[in-house]
């Protein structure tokens, strides 16, 4: 299953079928009358990241009644994101030349003759008047159906756009994962070495302190006490547990990216846990190398967090 981004843009235009073309047998109808003669509707969908699904609509007046159906369409297709949906009719067909049909012309001729019989002074119809009445008498397309078709096409285009963007985000996250895994591997052998150095340093300083103050404590007892104190201190600076948890979180992130689907919230939680472990590693680190590794980890984790916030 793919991973989807919450950011994207899509647009679509749906047109009604041109019924005038069904009557044109000689193929001489103007191009404008053969393209979108019955109207068209354009849809646009914009999306940015959000914790939940936040929908807003900017619809033309004739499409206000479609908002419940459009909301149902979007909620069935998307789970997260702040989305703005626009739906507007395209009126380019209004300026196109109509294609008068024989039955329309016969009707106008009959009506003109009837009017002139009763009103002999009435003037004949002009070409402009004939074209105007033919346009007015043309069947009106059901723009609601066209609008919903345009919306469905726009939603499908948005899904494809969010999937492409999601694939790019996964590639970036996998690259950062490799960097974190490499840093964790570098830190693993440094932990026992740092603990051993701290133990040796603690024992040496403890013995120096005893020699300076003197006393009746035997060297064996002093050494045993020093080792005990050093072991307690070593437990406080040991970060092996943090490294193991960090590796487990990295493995889980890799598994979620491979699984796909709606993983954004779970990834966001795991990024927080990674940040917690990296902070603990830095605060407990007793070696400069571990401190540097902690800083590099935090940089990579922050870069991952910025990308994860865009995943659905």
Give structural notes.
The protein is of the alpha+beta class and 312 residues long. Among the domains are: 99-137, no CATH class; 192-237. The protein is built from 11 helices and 4 strands; from the N terminus they run βααββαβαααααααα. The protein has helices at residues 20-23, 31-34, 67-77, 102-118, 127-137, 143-187, 190-213, 219-237, 240-259, 264-284, 288-308; strands spanning 8-15, 40-48, 53-59, 81-90. It has a 4-stranded mixed beta sheet with strand order 1-2-4-3. Strand 3, helix 3 and strand 4 form a beta-alpha-beta unit. Helix 3 (67-77) packs parallel to helix 6 (143-187), helix 6 (143-187) packs antiparallel against helix 11 and helix 7 packs antiparallel against helix 8 (219-237). The longest helix is centred in the middle third of the chain and has 45 residues, at 143-187. The protein is rod-shaped, with a radius of gyration of 37 Å. The two termini are 13 Å apart. Mean pLDDT is 81; it is low at 19-37.
Q: What's a concise summary of this model?
A:
With 312 residues, the protein is α+β, with helices and mostly antiparallel strands.
